[in-house]
Amino acid sequence: MAGSHVAHAVYKGPSVVKEILIGITLGMVAGGFWKIHHWNNQRRTKEFYDMLEKGEISVVVNEE
């Protein structure tokens, strides 16, 4: 009786091109989130100085 041959998965090692593409993709996503965070901080700062200039807010504590 002939033994049946079982196919086993063979580990070929890391794919350099695939790892580079994954690294670039993760870097772009993280960079995008960082830019969004930076733009939000810029917007808040601009709004603060605009309100300060219009006199809507003050950085001086009123002593009553």
UniProtKB/TrEMBL annotation:
Keyword Nucleus in record: no
Cellular compartments per GO CC: mitochondrial inner membrane
Residue stretches in coiled coil: none
Compartment(s) of residence: Mitochondrion inner membrane
Chain segments annotated as transmembrane: 20-36
InterPro entries: COX5C (IPR008432)
Keyword Transmembrane: yes
Sorted UniProt keywords: Membrane, Mitochondrion, Mitochondrion inner membrane, Transmembrane, Transmembrane helix
Domain of life: Eukaryota
Family: Belongs to the cytochrome c oxidase subunit 5C family.
Protein function: This protein is one of the nuclear-coded polypeptide chains of cytochrome c oxidase, the terminal oxidase in mitochondrial electron transport.
Protein name (Swiss-Prot/TrEMBL): Cytochrome c oxidase subunit 5C
Gene (name only): LOC104243733
